[in-house]
Structures are given as structure tokens and as C-alpha cells.
Amino acid sequence: MFRAVFRLSATGARSLTRSRPCYSAPLASRCYSHGKVETDEEFDSRWVTYFSKPDLDAWELRKGMNTLIGYDLVPEPKILDSALRACRRLNDLASAIRILEAVKDKAGPHKDIYPYLIQELKPTLTELGISTPEELGIDKL
Amino acid sequence: MLATRALSLIGKRAISTSVCVRGGHGVAKVEDYALPNLSAEQKSLKEKEKGSWVALSNEEKIALYRISFKQSFAEMNQGSGEWKSVVGGVFFFIGFTGLVVLWQRKYVYGPVPHTFEGDYKEKELQRMLDMRMGPVQGFSAHWDYENKQWKK
Fold it and tell me: Which family does the record assign (chain A) (predicted)?
């Protein structure tokens, strides 16, 4: 849902005989002539699984978050939930707060995305005791 | 045997650029990836972090954040007032250039040709009208030859 243009096009033999129209609507596909498409659900569950690893170490958490933030999308709440729980397992509150700041930054001019994410994550945030940057006042100077 | 000796020398060189415990130099500095030296108070806070985060006060949470991160996103992304200095500097140097140009006009350039003088210009204009330059849409089209004046 929050994907910009990060999808791989559908495959194979079809595109050899027919030319594929390239359109740039928000949920468009790239015109690769081969390569399997990864659906949104597959992408999400891959990342949820990554952060759910019980013995995830701090490096892997940082690497995963940096990679995820590098994509042209705002991660789904379930991925962030998994990442926040990983922070809890690693006793790293600072990273949890940082993750919230980072996804707000990723949403850019789309001001309605972050409140939605916080709304979806509220149960997890209260359960784990993670304060949002707004509650701590560090979202302002 | 020569090869192994050569390889061992190459191996030695490679180590100096990798991350090592005493790495204050190199590409991946250890300070960028490890916690800084903590004070006693910070250490006890880190211990408290292992328990429930609900028990932490806001100040403690901010303190934990600051241990790991020097600047918040807001601080990191804030603009500076540098652009005002840049624009001011640009205007200053344009102004200075203007002074240089004026000085040049006065002290470097010689007099303009005599063809710019008032008398000469009048004669030039009359000549243009006499030879009917631009009679349809241009210059002479605006001159009323009957009444010897410019057309209204």
C-alpha cells in the first residue's frame, strides 16, 4: 500500500512476443522481461521473518533497518512491529525510538502516513513501553 | 615458498585497513559502531533498560536515546542560516564589481568617438530621414514629412 515504484514486473515468455506498455501509475511494474515478481505480501513477510529471528544481533538489526529505510517505501506496521520487538529483545530503546523517527522521515510530504503507523503500532508501543518521539519532545528542536 | 612469503606480506597490509579492536584509524572506525565510554550513571541506566521500559521516565528514555544518537532527526535535518550569508556575499561582490566598472569607465577607457556628440547625432538623424530609412514600419514611418515633425 505504501509502495512507490518498487515492484518487479511479471515474467517470461509473454514479453518476448508482446511489447509491454510501461506506465508510471503509483503501483506500476518495471518492464523486466524476466524475473519473478515479489508481491507486497511476500516482501512484508520476508522482512517480518528477518526481524523475528530470536537471536538477531545488534548488527543485524542495524543492517536490516538501514536496508529497509533505503528502499523507496514506508514499511508496513507489521514489519515495524517485528523490528520494535527485536529492539526489545536486544534491550535497545534508543533504536526503537529512532525507528519511529526514521519512518516519519521516510513518509516525507505525506503527513497522513505516520499517524496511521502510530495508530496501528499503539498496542505494541504501550505493551513494550516505547514512547514516541512526540511524547518525548525530541521531534521538535 | 616465495608465493607464501609474498602472500603473508599482502596479508599484513590488508589488516591495517580492517576494523580491529584498536581501530581509531581506517574506514570503519570503531567509535561509529560501539557505545561510547559510559559514566556510572549511564551504566546503571543501561542496566535499567534491560528491564521493563514502562518503568523508565521520559528523561531516562531521552538519556538512553542520547547515549546512542548524538542528534535527533529534527536536529539533524534543521537548516542553517548559511544561505543568508551566501546571498549577502553575492550582492556584496556584485556591488564591488559595479564600483570597479565605474572606476574603469572613468580612468581606463578613453573618450567616446566624436560620432556620439549632440550636433553629430542631429545631422545623423536628419540624414536618416532624408534617405527615408525604414519608410514603411521603421524609423521614417514615424516622421511626418508634410509638417516636419514626428507623427503623433
Answer: Belongs to the cytochrome c oxidase subunit 5A family.
